[in-house]
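Sample A.
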Amino acid sequence: MWNKNLVFGLSPEAAAGLLLRLALGLLFFLAGLGKFAGPGGPVGAAQGIADMFQPTFLPRILVVPFAYLLPYVEISLGALLILGVFTLEAFAVAGVMLISLAMGMAVQGKHDVVAHNLNYVLITAVGLWFTSKDNRFALDTRFRKK
C-alpha cells in the first residue's frame, strides 16, 4: 500500500533535509570553486574582497584573513553538505558563515544582498532542523550507526 507520508520512500523530513542539504552544498561548493577559477585564483579573489572593504570601517587586519580563508571554507562546507559528512555541524557553520557575509554586505550598504543572504540563513536553519529529524541519506548517518 502506498504511504502518502513518504516521498520516494523517504519521510518528508528526510526528503526536505536532503534537498536543502544538496542545494546549499552546491551553492557553497560552486561559490568557492568560482573563486579558484577566477582571475588570480583564490589570491585574486581575496584581494578583490579586501579592496571592496577598503572604504568601510572594517579593519583590513580582519578582512584579509577572512577573504583568504573564504574559498577554502566554502568548498569544504559544500563538500561536507553534499556528502552528508558532519551534516549538523556543517549546517551550523554554514549559518554562521552566511551571517558573517550578510554583515559584510550590510557594512557596504548592499541591503539587497543582505536580504538574499538572510534567506539562505533561513534555508540553513530549516535544513538543520529537518536533518536533525531524519538524515538517513548522509554518510555520517551510515558511519554513526550502532
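Sample B, a different protein:
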Amino acid sequence: MSNDTPDSLIPYDEIVQEALRAVVGRVLGSIVNGGGTLPGAHHFYITFKTGAPGVSIPPHLRERFPDEMTIVLQNKFWDLEVGAQGFSVSLTFNQVPAKLTIPFAAITAFVDPAVDFGLQFQAAVEQLEPEAHEDAENDGSDGDGDGDGDGSNVVSVDFGRKK
C-alpha cells in the first residue's frame, strides 16, 4: 500500500485561492458601498505582482517596483472602484497622484492590521527570482498600524502544486 497522495482531478487549490481573493473584493466593495471611507481604524495593505496580466500602474512605479508592490489604503485614496475581476484606486506617491488598476489574481497578500487579519495567496504570476525593490511608501499611511501581531489571523494556503 502506498503512502503517496493521489493526484486530484479537482483543482482544490485554485478554487480556494479564487474564493479567498473574493474576500478582498467583497471587503473593498463594502467600502465603496459605504461611501468610500474606511470604518474605524481599519486600513489595508495590499501586495500585488506588478508584472501580472491586467495590472496598470504608471511607468515610474513599475521601474521602482519591477516585481511586487504593497499599497496602503488608509486616509489618502480616492476613486476606489471594484469590479468582478479586480479594482482600481487613485493614490499619491511622493505627492504625485497615480491611478492603479489591480486584478484580484495579481494580489499576493491582503492585511488589515487594525484587527490583525491577513490573507496570503499563491502568486498567480511566478518568476524564478524576484528582483529586489524598495518598500512602497504611498502617502496613505500614517504609520499607526501595529504590524507587530503574531500573525494568528493570517490565512496562508499553499497546496504545493505538482508540476
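Observation for Sample B: The radius of gyration is 17 Å.
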